[in-house]
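Quick one: structure for this chain?
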Amino acid sequence: MTGPRPGPRTAHSRPVHSRRPLVTLGRRSVAVLVAASLVGLLGFAWPFLTPVTQAGGASAVSHTQDAPWLFVLVLPLLAGVVLAQLSEGGMDAKVVALLGMLTAVGAGLRAVSPGVAGLEPSFFLLVLAGYAFGPGFGFVLGALAIVAGGLVTAGVGPWLPFQMFAAGWVGAFAGLLPGAGGRHGTVRRWQLALLAGYGMLAGLAYGAVMNLWFWPFTTNGTGLSYVAGAPLAANASRYAAFWLATSLGWDLPRGVVTAALVLAFGRGLLRAFARVTRRAAFGAPVAFDAGAAFEAGAAVEAPLASRPPADPLPPVDSLSSTDDAAGTDRSSSGRPPESAR
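Got it. Here's what it folds into:
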């Protein structure tokens, strides 16, 4: 077999491991993610934009009027983020399966300690997964882990959609940190320190944001309550006093536990995430090397060409005469032919 010698095998036939996040965000994904965040911000902020915040009494405090609608909106928005990434190639079946597995793990961690005294070990998983797999994955994981944990621990209430947005932001902002999305399994000390510091701040910020779902409706008349129509600086001072007096005791343990778990298990989990990424070949481009295919075909044809030719089959007439002779011999010896047995 002669022909032009193929060129050397190129690197296009091997998976390329880059430092981009596992779940990449295209334009549609970013648009849906921004829309979901805006809906969440509006859900938290609308009491500050209307002058009738303190007229609803217990109904307003429990958010029974708007929380169901917010929950109805957040689920399609989460589905929209996933569908947008599927359509853009940022997600595939393997990523969806990984998302479901980590959601179950996060729900299990919330079942172990569902916010008792602020101890919530599930937040360190949101931080690490968002850092490894990107902001879109982190946002969806945070929201789904919260709603799954709420179903497991019977923690469903008007606060649930607000928790979903807040936890989703924890995972999303982790994916925006420097060095996020590494696929090579190398975790440096500065990365662990950065993630531990972020986990500490995220634990505090989560509580500070979650207080806003009910604080504007408090009517105790003290210096800790919200005053509609008051200057922004005055209400900010009141909220700071409210947070220090009522929420810091819960938020500080959450941040400390998150930072400690990141330092204890962060290196191992980030390496495991990178290993899963490499073995599953997430994001590996599909390319074919013509030179490699040519060499493989030549390697298969070479042994076939070196084999000796097979013996030709005897003609059909000779086979018939041989069978007739064999039948005559058997008949003459007293044995019936094969066809009569």
